Amino acid sequence: MGDLFLRALRQEPVERLPVWIMRQAGRYLPEYRAIREKVDFLTLCRTPSLAAEVTLQPVARLGVDAAILFSDIMVPLLPAVPGMRFDPGPKLPHPVTDPDAIHPFDPLVEVGFVAEAIRLARRTLTVPLIGFAGAPATLATYLAEGGAKKSFHAFRALLHADAGRARALLERLEAITLRYLLMQVEAGAHAVQIFDSWGGELSDADFAGFAAPGLRRICARLRDTGVPVLYFARGMPRDVGATAVGVDWTVDLAAARARGPVQGNLDPAVLFGDAATVAEKTRAMAAPLARTGYVVNLGHGILPLTPVESALAFVKAAQSIRCSP
Amino acid sequence: MGDLFLRALRQEPVERLPVWIMRQAGRYLPEYRAIREKVDFLTLCRTPSLAAEVTLQPVARLGVDAAILFSDIMVPLLPAVPGMRFDPGPKLPHPVTDPDAIHPFDPLVEVGFVAEAIRLARRTLTVPLIGFAGAPATLATYLAEGGAKKSFHAFRALLHADAGRARALLERLEAITLRYLLMQVEAGAHAVQIFDSWGGELSDADFAGFAAPGLRRICARLRDTGVPVLYFARGMPRDVGATAVGVDWTVDLAAARARGPVQGNLDPAVLFGDAATVAEKTRAMAAPLARTGYVVNLGHGILPLTPVESALAFVKAAQSIRCSP
């Protein structure tokens, strides 16, 4: 039964809907906060035993059908951006748009702690483990802004002011993202998710011209290894050759499912309702898609102040939905 | 020729495409910054002679086909939220979710300076003047967050935690928005735009259940006065009975135009390219829609560091497009 999540992604028969929660390992869990009282965010990411422990927490607490590695999309860029810190979003000492600042690297040497965390987590996990990375355009967005800001237009501005530089930056990030994800697969990740929260902010033409080719290459190479690849973006995700797309709550789920396997998309804010309301809205969302090819999830990361009981109500409601053969 | 913008919205014959720029009066213009060196943002909004002067600046500088009142969507809430300041986004002394905090008010008494600014601007304007307000859900989003933040989920959380309170808050804001816009029309606004940047963050069900009914009532009442109503949202705007929709750059413009009159949608980041590139991308966007029912604009507000020459290149390129009869 442990591979329910993977069977759903492969469109093989499933007896019920699988469910996990984006950012399921994190601030809403008291056992996570207890660890964070002792170590800072970056130390946690860099310490395999702790990262593995936090990765396992939501599986024990919520009984989700997949675990996701505890880390941050900016972690593979730590070697390239000395002085980057997390508070809790990434803060860079200065914006980075120079492609040469992003030197090619050996992830096993530079961020091997991620592979080690995956190996440690797998020792005790009873459900599949998802590795992840940021999409090149989303990484470039944070790099060009110098971190998490209120507005995110610096990379789009670069793209129009100096298309060559923007493309070179994306190509460097593509190389890093691919190596980094391949390392995770080799370490034992059963699936990988590419987070592209900011890719949806590109116009169709800019996405097609700048972001899509690299994403297609990344997805194709990863799928060659046999692992399913999930691609998450805001708004209706474009086709980049992923196994399944993750969609946010503004997207019509049935329309997205009609295009292929899909994951999502309850508004994380729904989890501020009481447990009965959460269960009702989860069932209303998921029941019409009760067959293989669908993974229940939120439409974005779980919010830090979410009550644990709501997360549990969400998971239980999703897992109560039987699938037709 | 002065009514080109209005004819395009009414789908009457136009000889060329009209153009204006969201946030065209503001930080990217040196003549605006010169005024702001002398007065703060709120004083500027509250002083009719200055607000009118700033409203006129982009018409003189760029030759745009419409002016938009210089103000902020939070201005009609100043009487309800003592201590609100702007830096430059709104900062509230505390989050507001109590509907009773939003007392009904007489806009002529409480924010009559807005009507006076419209009257003053109209004395010298040679193009139509657009009044504006925030949509109730967008106002509620800022109120519930306590201002402009990095994440905007407090109102959506309220909506699921206490639907009755959320609905009551929206109804108070609907009443204020409607009175405020009617005051602007009576003062001489030729058209009004409703800004709903955060309405697009609601799921289809939540938008239909909470936001749409009030927006429909506002649009219907305003259209009874004879003025065109523009409705701007992020993503593909839902139908709320507006005369035209404003769309951002992630929306397929032809698909939006097929549903009715449309305004937009160049990525504001394009204006960081050189003048030739700006002109080329503007023409590529607008030329396929060279007929009535389309107003050229950016897909969101012009960015503060935009070169004035780029804004001018955008306007000139749009105005060079002749329309078929």
Verbal overview:
Two copies of one chain form a homodimer. By secondary structure, chain A is an alpha/beta fold. Chain A has one domain (4-319): TIM Barrel. In chain A, 45% of the residues lie in helices and 11% in strands. Chain A has 13 helices and nine strands. Chain A has helices at residues 4-9, 30-36, 41-46, 48-62, 107-110, 112-124, 136-145, 154-161, 163-187, 204-224, 253-259, 275-286, 308-319, and strands at 67-68, 85-86, 90-91, 129-134, 191-196, 229-233, 244-247, 262-266, 294-298. Chain A has a seven-stranded parallel β-sheet with strand order 1-4-5-6-7-8-9. In chain A, strands 2-3 form a two-stranded antiparallel ribbon. The mean pLDDT of chain A is 95.
In angstroms, what separates the terminal alpha carbons of chain A?
A: 16 Å
Oligomer: homodimer
The chain-level structural class of chain A is alpha/beta
Q: Bin the strand percentage of chain A.
A: 5-15%
Largest sheet of chain A: 7 strands, parallel
**For the record, what CATH class of chain A applies?**
Alpha Beta
E-strand count of chain A: 9
CATH topology of chain A: TIM Barrel
> What is the helical fraction of chain A, as a range of percent?
40-55%
Which two chains share the most extensive interface?
A-B, 32 and 32 residues
